[in-house]
């Protein structure tokens, strides 16, 4: 069984539909044959190809990649957390309904995560539960809402709701820090994205938020948890030797790895080995970040061809963990 639990879609939203969210900042898709462009208002945002929106092509891609199933989530530019809720909620509902329609080509192989308007926690909880009832297998959220990180009271309320309603949550980094200092060479993706994920995980651990969120929450972080596995020793050392690191966090930071999962998108056998050593092979799931250029091009090859992971570990990472996590 080979399940890719981190991949993206973008629905065929036109400019008029995007303008209902925001004329200048609504994201939409301009297509021309098998290629396309995600647009933000009148401006090109990212060139894309048809596997992103054409589900017949997507299924061909799954066959080429020998995938049994793939879980798709929104391209983060679709989140719209800064829009007024009276626009953001119908937008999220439209994205979620379109996503589910896209899976109709092969509902047993294509699964989707919902997006929610996190700027309004009550609306986000309702939309997460509506989407779950409609057939979404979980939700994807960004790792922050403006200046609110994952330990914010509203986010803790959202996580608690998802735990109680049995909704798995994937946290994806977005809206990256760094600004003017990271204008070139995809530095926001290479430096700030892993740092955003590290910030999200540490905000939950060091704030004590994990003490307030039910342990039943199924929570996963993208991109192997960013810098987390490599930096965990640094965090534990700080917790032991500085009281200001301990003040809200009652247990050693490394003891909280049992509270979440990560995907396998780290692109190096040494990194994957470290990740599995730190998290345990029961807490890593195959995630490709397909179909973008920064994703794994031969999906699952980093796990399948790994020289040191055991066959049992590979089996868990390639499919069994995701089956259990998403209840497939
Ligand atoms: Zn991604």
Which key terms come to mind for this protein?
328 residues; alpha/beta; TIM Barrel; eight-stranded parallel sheet; three-stranded antiparallel sheet; binds zinc ion; metal-binding; metal ion binding; hydrolase activity; Amidohydro-rel
Question: Percent of residues in helical segments?
Answer: 40-55%
Count structural domains.
1
Gross geometry:
globular
Structural class: alpha/beta
Mean pLDDT, all residues = 97
Following the backbone from N to C, one meets helices and strands in this order, namely: EHEEEHEHEHEHEHHEHHEHEHH
Largest sheet: 8 strands, parallel
Strand order of the largest sheet: 1-5-6-7-8-9-10-11
Identify the CATH architecture.
Alpha-Beta Barrel
Structure ligands: zinc ion
CATH topology: TIM Barrel
Overview in brief:
Belongs to the metallo-dependent hydrolases superfamily. ACMSD family. With 328 residues, the chain is an alpha/beta fold.
């Amino acid at each position: 069984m080979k399940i890719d639990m981190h991949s993206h879609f973008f629905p065929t939203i036109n400019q008029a539909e995007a303008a209902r969210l925001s004329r200048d900042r609504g994201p939409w898709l301009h297509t021309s044959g098998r290629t396309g462009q995600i647009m933000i208002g009148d401006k090109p945002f990212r060139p894309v190809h048809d596997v992103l929106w054409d589900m017949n092509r997507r299924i061909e891609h799954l066959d080429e990649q020998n995938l049994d199933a793939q879980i798709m989530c929104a391209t983060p530019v679709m989140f719209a957390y800064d829009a007024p809720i009276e626009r953001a909620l119908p937008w999220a509902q439209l994205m979620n309904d379109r996503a589910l329609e896209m899976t109709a080509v092969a509902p047993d192989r294509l699964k989707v995560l919902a997006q929610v308007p996190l700027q309004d926690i009550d609306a986000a909880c309702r939309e997460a539960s509506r989407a779950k009832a409609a057939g979404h297998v979980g939700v994807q959220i960004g790792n922050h809402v403006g200046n609110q990180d994952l330990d914010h009271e509203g986010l803790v309320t959202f996580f608690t709701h998802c735990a109680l309603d049995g909704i798995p949550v994937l946290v994806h980094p977005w809206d990256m820090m760094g600004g003017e200092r990271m204008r070139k060479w995809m530095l926001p993706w290479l430096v700030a994205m892993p740092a955003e994920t590290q910030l999200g995980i540490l905000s939950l651990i060091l704030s004590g938020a994990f003490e307030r969120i039910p342990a039943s929450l199924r929570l996963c972080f993208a991109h192997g948890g960013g810098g987390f596995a490599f930096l965990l020793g640094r965090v534990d050392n700080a917790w032991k030797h500085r009281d200001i690191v301990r003040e809200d966090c009652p247990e050693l930071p490394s003891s909280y790895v049992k509270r979440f999962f990560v995907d396998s998108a780290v692109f190096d056998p040494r990194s994957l080995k470290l990740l599995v050593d730190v998290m345990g092979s029961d807490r890593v799931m195959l995630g490709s970040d397909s179909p973008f250029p920064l994703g794994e091009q031969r999906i699952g090859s980093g796990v399948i061809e790994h020289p040191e992971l055991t066959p049992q570990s590979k089996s868990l990472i390639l499919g069994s963990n995701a089956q259990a996590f998403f209840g497939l």
